[in-house]
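[recover] target loaded
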């Protein structure tokens, strides 16, 4: 068996242990072999992806010729059959004939043999390897280096924990040192190393480690170590004897040792179990000052309140849900102010200790009466419900709010705030402080913003309007999505032109571009470049922009056809913004593309827990149940939603679809008729009045799809490839649908991974032809 070495050095030896020098002298060919052998031999790689990585400057004909030449050269230096083909599309390395040190390290790590795994990591992956005019290879190599380094660091952290539990403190210190050195920005790893040095009595070295880390943080990022690290050094400095306390150094169970990544250029990475490694305190400390200031002040108020024993002992766990703000200006153009302020208040309050905050700021929840609010609290387990409204007074806007005890209906009014649109951020901050004071019944002063860090007011306002345009109507009617994306792009672009340091506006641009790709509004390559460039800009300004990390996750997962790539970045997004439901929405979409429906349901359920009033998250969870072949569970979800919000358009449509998948055709027709009546479609309501059975249901579905198609033709809508497929199957024209499918691949249209989940294909999903097409498309790899 040949062995390819890539960690710390590049080498290739044959079964007799002889170096294959002739191939090693050809950097591009050894890089090509490494690409095929990673993440481990046996991984299939599509030819078009290989071409795009190694020969992006060539036209298709020359690139394919270059690929054939490279294959011929590499095969000459390997055992026969070492490079395998699957049809005309995919290549891989046979794991029975070629092994790699990376694969061995991964197997050791998976088996819990952390010392052996760490021994394999002798340095960075493919050191010194460079290929000219191949930017795609550079990006791929950097990603692979990060993944292998992460495995080594986790191995070191686990090994330190094992050694400590076994009483082998010198071994624990050595492993903790290795973990910290593998990632010098990881404050948690450095702190664990310092603590272990203290335990073995080497306080001089503990001080030296701290000083090196302090200097590194100052030089690289212009900041000091966190309060937790400084407190640890103070404890070491003042203690006469070495610490006897047992600490966890695994990086998994030690909540007091968050994995910190500095705000500019690097980020927190969660551990293996998915637990966010940044504690709430660390998250607050490194948020932008405009967000952290009111939360810190509110925490001071809460600490003062909770220090009173009689109140603290009696206080039950508290949870606050923020209802969507009512726009009483009667000007739809100011809807963004209502949703933006409500969301801003939620973002500011979510870090206060002693209370959990859930935002429904962007939901279409109907206006509630007091009785509804009591029922809402009982259904969702909220103890406090925040109602608010915005109205216009002359040139100013005024927000009024009240906090309602869900169990009793007791309402406490919060002081009104009046402001101009240029003062939205100040108004959010003052309202958050006032709400915190009322919730905790303890006065919390309004914070003083640090003006030098303030975003330009007009840029901030445009950013809020862009977010509203992008998110407030998550499932637009057919034909409106393109305009929504165009409007959002224009608003975010204006925001960054006014203030290039507006990280959230850059993040918004990345989210729009990502959405355009996943819904097939723009070609993948075009959208990928725009999305990743904007996300990188956002993260360079503020590495705690969770939506930007989520954009990188879904774009790179689709680019490299690797679920693991996406999930690793999703972990970073969760660590950066654990309260951002959009992160879990993206995670669910990735898992749906991998056909891991149960895991996708968990992700959508988490998004719904963070924002229980926005129906899109429930619809995503129920749709995943339908994809998994469990229409009964989807039906129960939709029925529960409609019981408390009968106006929910997504739930009404989902109810009809669930009945149909259960074969309850007459109930599906009745549900559809009710939906059409509520929507004011009298002709469809009449057509459904006397319809009965499966054939009538599908005939009317085809007719409704033809009506939508005619409307699109009248508007002269551009028929994107995925819409052609939707429309063809929707009208029952399977011949056109399958013909359109033959022209597409997931490489150009990632939404194809979720083809069986599309409502338009429900009629055909169990037919042999459709199942064969699904087999050809496959699923997002990895996981």
């Amino acid at each position: 068996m040949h062995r390819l070495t890539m960690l710390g050095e590049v080498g290739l030896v044959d079964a007799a242990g002889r170096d294959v020098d002739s191939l090693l002298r050809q950097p591009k060919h050894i890089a090509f072999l490494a690409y095929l052998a990673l993440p481990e031999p046996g991984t299939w790689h599509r030819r078009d992806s290989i071409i795009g990585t190694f020969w992006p400057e060539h036209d298709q004909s020359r690139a394919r010729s270059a690929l054939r030449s490279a294959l011929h050269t590499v095969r000459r230096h390997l055992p026969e059959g070492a490079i395998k083909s699957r049809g005309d599309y995919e290549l891989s390395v046979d794991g029975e004939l070629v092994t790699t040190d990376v694969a061995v390290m991964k197997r050791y790590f998976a088996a819990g043999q952390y010392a052996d795994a760490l021994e394999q990591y002798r340095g960075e992956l493919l050191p010194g390897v460079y290929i000219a005019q191949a930017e795609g290879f550079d990006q791929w190599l950097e990603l692979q280096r990060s993944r292998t380094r992460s495995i080594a660091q986790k191995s070191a952290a686990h090994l330190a924990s094992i050694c400590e539990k076994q009483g082998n403190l010198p071994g624990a210190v050595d492993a903790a040192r290795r973990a910290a050195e593998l990632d010098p920005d990881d404050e948690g790893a450095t702190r664990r190393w310092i603590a272990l040095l203290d335990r073995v009595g080497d306080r001089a070295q503990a001080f030296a480690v701290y000083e090196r880390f302090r200097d590194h943080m100052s030089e690289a990022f212009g900041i000091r170590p966190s309060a937790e690290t400084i407190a640890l050094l103070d404890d070491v400095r003042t203690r006469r004897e070495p610490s006897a306390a047992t600490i966890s150094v695994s990086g998994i169970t030690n909540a007091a040792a968050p994995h910190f990544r500095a705000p500019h250029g690097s980020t927190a990475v969660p551990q293996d179990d998915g637990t966010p490694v940044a504690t709430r305190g660390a998250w607050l400390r490194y948020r932008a000052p405009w967000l952290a200031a009111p939360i810190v002040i509110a925490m001071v108020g809460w600490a003062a309140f909770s220090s009173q024993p009689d109140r603290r002992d009696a206080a039950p766990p508290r949870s606050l849900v923020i209802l969507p703000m009512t726009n009483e200006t009667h000007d739809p153009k100011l809807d963004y102010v209502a949703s933006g302020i409500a969301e801003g208040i939620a973002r500011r309050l979510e870090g206060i200790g002693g209370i959990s905050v859930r935002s429904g700021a962007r939901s279409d929840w109907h206006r509630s009466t007091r009785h509804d609010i009591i029922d809402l609290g009982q259904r969702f387990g909220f103890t406090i419900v925040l109602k608010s409204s915005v109205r216009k007074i002359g040139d100013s806007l005024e927000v009024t709010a009240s906090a309602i005890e869900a169990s009793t209906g007791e309402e406490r009014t919060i002081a009104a705030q009046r402001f101009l649109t240029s003062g939205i951020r100040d108004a959010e901050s003052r309202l958050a402080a006032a709400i915190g004071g009322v919730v905790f019944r303890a006065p919390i002063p309004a914070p003083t913003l640090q003006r030098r860090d303030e975003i330009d007011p007009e840029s901030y306002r445009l950013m809020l309007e862009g977010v509203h345009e992008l998110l407030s109507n998550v499932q637009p009617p057919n034909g409106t999505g393109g305009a929504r994306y165009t409007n959002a792009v224009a608003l975010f672009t204006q925001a960054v032109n006014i203030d290039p340091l507006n990280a959230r506006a850059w993040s918004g641009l990345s989210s729009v571009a990502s959405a355009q790709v996943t819904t097939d509004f723009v070609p993948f390559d075009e959208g990928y470049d725009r999305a990743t460039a904007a996300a990188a800009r956002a993260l360079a300004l503020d590495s705690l922009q969770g939506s930007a990390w989520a954009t990188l996750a879904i774009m790179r997962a689709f680019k490299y056809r690797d679920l693991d790539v996406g999930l690793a970045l999703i972990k970073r997004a969760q660590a950066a913004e654990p309260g951002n439901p959009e992160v879990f929405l993206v995670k669910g979409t990735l898992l749906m593309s991998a056909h891991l429906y149960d895991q996708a349901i968990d992700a959508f359920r988490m998004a719904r827990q963070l924002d229980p009033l926005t129906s899109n998250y429930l619809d995503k969870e129920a749709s995943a149940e339908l994809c998994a072949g469990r229409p009964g569970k989807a039906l129960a979800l939709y029925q529960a939603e409609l019981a408390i919000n009968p106006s929910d358009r997504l739930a009404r449509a989902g109810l009809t679809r669930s009945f149909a998948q259960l074969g309850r055709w007459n109930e599906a027709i009745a549900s559809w008729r009710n939906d059409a009546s509520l929507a004011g479609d009298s002709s469809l309501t009449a057509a459904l009045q006397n319809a009965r059975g499966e054939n009538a249901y599908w005939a009317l579905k085809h007719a409704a799809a033809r009506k939508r198609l005619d409307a699109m033709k009248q508007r002269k809508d551009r028929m994107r490839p995925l819409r052609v497929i939707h429309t063809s199957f929707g009208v029952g024209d399977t011949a056109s649908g399958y013909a359109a499918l033959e022209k597409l691949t997931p490489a150009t249209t990632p939404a194809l991974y979720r083809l069986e989940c599309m409502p338009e294909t429900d009629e055909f999903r169990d037919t042999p032809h459709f199942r064969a097409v699904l087999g050809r498309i496959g699923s997002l790899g990895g996981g």
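[recover] notes: The two ends are 27 Å apart (CA to CA).
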